[in-house]
Amino acid sequence: MLSVELHAHSAASHDGRDPVDLLLEQAAAVGLDALAVTDHDGIDASLSAAASAREYGLVGIPGMEVTSAAGHVLALGVEELVPAGRPFDETVARIRDLGGIAVLPHPFQPSRHGVAPHVSRDQLRQADAIEVYNSRLLTGRANRQAERFAESHGVPMTAGSDAHIAEMVGQAVTEVDAYHRSAEGILDAIREGRTSVVGKRTPWVISVQQFGGGVRRRVASMLPW
Q1: CA 10, CA 75: separation in Å to the nearest integer?
Q2: In Å, what is the CA distance from 171 to each residue of 87, 151, 215?
Q3: How far apart are CA 221 and CA 225, in angstroms?
Q4: What value, to the nearest 5°, has the Cα angle with vertex 109 and ends 88 and 135?
Q5: Count of beta carbons in the 10 Å neighbourhood of residue 4
Q6: Rounded CA gap, 165 and 27, in Å?
Q7: d(CA 219, CA 3)
Q8: How far is CA 5 from CA 27, 118, 152, 188, in A?
């Protein structure tokens, strides 16, 4: 079994803080086997992290968090930019055309751009996997909804820390029964549902800090200097 972080953001995201080397250091320090950096609508930092992962004893999984017209979709295993703003079905198809898998993060949280309110249940079922434990939770209700949906419809399940600072990498981990210790082996295992989830809540103080830091960075990026 491999311990994998599938949802983390670097400073390349508008709401991320740290460079990829700090994310990789943290992943190695907490005993993970693999890391996917999934920045919002950008892939360059993730490609850099995937290329450097071996230096930290890790498997690097390239990817990104795509803002589709319906909400966020994790594109794992892609090495090209998936365009934002496209319809949900088109986004999923593009991810697969690029050899990746489409995972739905926090799908039942509309305040965080979850897709569930904007697509049909049949469309949800077409995802390669559903994130059923996101560590940035308040009550846990949305996680439980996601888990019930995945279980009742036979959709593979993942977890993700949704880390926006390096210290939170590894809060929520997908345990993957991969036949090969590689990005391809991990993605194949997720497609086939050979996963289990292990997670703990991000401390609320850290969640507030991550949110506040993201707001400040977004405002700063809009200023004319």
Answers
A1: 16
A2: 31, 22, 22
A3: 9
A4: 115
A5: 29
A6: 12
A7: 35
A8: 8, 27, 25, 16
Q: Rounded to an integer, what is the distance from CA 47 to the centroid of its chain?
A: 15
E strand or H helix at 191 = helix 183-191
Residuewise pLDDT in 10s, the chain (225 residues):
999 999 999 999 999 999 999 999 999 999 999 999 999 999 999 999 999 999 999 999 999 999 999 999 999 999 999 999 999 999 999 999 999 999 999 999 998 899 999 999 999 999 999 999 999 887 889 999 999 999 999 999 999 999 999 999 999 999 999 999 999 999 999 999 999 999 888 876 676 665 555 545 454 444 455
Residue with tokens 């996917």: 36
- 198 DSSP β-pair partners: 173
Token readout for 33 is 């086997």
Helical H runs in 73-182?
A: 88-97, 121-125, 141-153
Map out the domains of the chain with their CATH numbers: 2-67+132-222 (3.20.20.140)
Answering whether pTM is above 0.70, one says yes
